[in-house]
Design brief:
- The structure is a single chain.
- With 296 residues, the protein is mainly alpha-helical.
- It has helices at 3-21, 30-40, 47-58, 63-84, 101-105, 107-125, 128-134, 136-150, 155-165, 172-197, 202-229, 232-235, 241-244, 250-254, 256-273, 282-293; strands spanning 94-95, 98-99.
- Strands 1-2 form a two-stranded antiparallel sheet.
- Helix 3 packs antiparallel against helix 4 (63-84) and helix 11 (202-229) runs antiparallel to helix 15 (256-273).
- The longest helix has 28 residues, at 202-229.
């Protein structure tokens, strides 16, 4: 299957599942759920849940094996975007081509919408059906991995380090630590948990985990490049903001040509590390190149 067709097919499936997990709500909760759904269904690419599904399929599993966890990744990612956009963080007014959550609902509701998405993500993962399907050992391993990737050991730590590094010149290792946590942790966990829930062997899980590490870094480098070369219309968010905030990026620290060279090398490494997989992993290979070549 071609990647474009696969992405469209899986995005529809994920959106249907998300709508089932977080349906429109009347009564006292309607404002909160309206704010949650406003950002959740604002047109995201669903890369993290699709990576989770693709990794499960690469080891012989199906989307049914991972759907609650795949959707949880999208909910956690969306919560992080809502909070990133707040005045106390990046103070952005545009996300996915629409006004950011706090511009529509106010800062207080935006914060609470993000809080709601984060906690609802763990509610939908903590289901008896998933536990029965994969067994206690894999279930607990996945829950711990998602929590670590999203929290103070992963994405949240990366955000703190990124904020503290603004306006400062940092070395290569420091920047890699920031991006491995801020962007890479959730992407890496997406594919690794997919392999675990799909029934992968220890060797397969390890190889896909390494793939996830590479594409997490590739995604960040690609983001850094697009902030300079992309357009607001294509990306659905303001561009040029990294330079305005004196952020440490791969183009700013290494130069654009070297950043692009690094992106190609890291993508090649991601593909190489899963070279032992059969055709079922072709989508993972295509996604690696998609991340490298994307324009939005």
């Amino acid at each position: 299957m071609q990647l474009k067709e696969y992405l469209n097919e899986k995005r529809i499936i994920v959106d249907e599942a998300l709508n089932g997990f977080l349906p429109e709500t009347k009564g006292p909760a309607h404002e909160l759920y309206d704010a949650i759904r406003y950002s959740l269904f604002a047109g995201g690419k669903r890369i993290r849940p699709i990576l989770c599904i693709a990794a499960a399929e690469a080891v012989g599993g199906t989307s049914d094996d991972v759907m609650p966890v795949a959707c949880a990744f999208e909910m956690i990612h969306t919560y992080s975007l809502i909070h990133d956009d707040l005045p106390a963080m990046d103070n952005d007014e545009l996300r996915r081509g629409k006004p950011t959550n706090h511009m529509v609902y106010g800062e207080a509701i935006a914060i609470l919408a993000g809080d709601g998405l984060l906690t609802e993500a763990f509610r939908i993962m903590a289901c008896a059906e998933l536990l029965a399907r994969v067994g206690a050992d894999r279930f607990i391993r996945v829950m711990e991995m998602v929590a670590s990737a999203a929290g103070a050991r992963g994405m949240v730590l990366g955000q703190v380090l990124d904020i503290r590094a603004e306006g400062k010149k940092i070395d290569t290792s420091h920047m890699e630590i920031i991006h491995a946590h801020k962007t890479g942790a959730l992407l890496r966990a997406s594919v690794t948990t997919g392999a675990i829930l799909g029934g992968g062997t220890d060797e397969q899980i390890d190889q896909i985990d390494k793939y996830g590490k590479y594409i997490g870094l590739a995604f960040q480098i690609s983001d850094d490049i697009l902030d300079i070369e992309g357009s607001t219309e294509e990306l659905g968010k303001q561009t040029g903001v990294d330079a305005e905030r004196s952020k440490n990026t791969y183009p700013s620290n290494y130069g654009m040509n070297n950043a692009k060279k690094m992106l190609k090398e890291i993508t090649a490494s991601a593909v190489e590390v899963i070279s032992g997989f059969d055709l079922k992993a072709d989508i993972l290979r295509q996604i690696a190149f998609y991340i490298m070549e994307r324009k939005k």
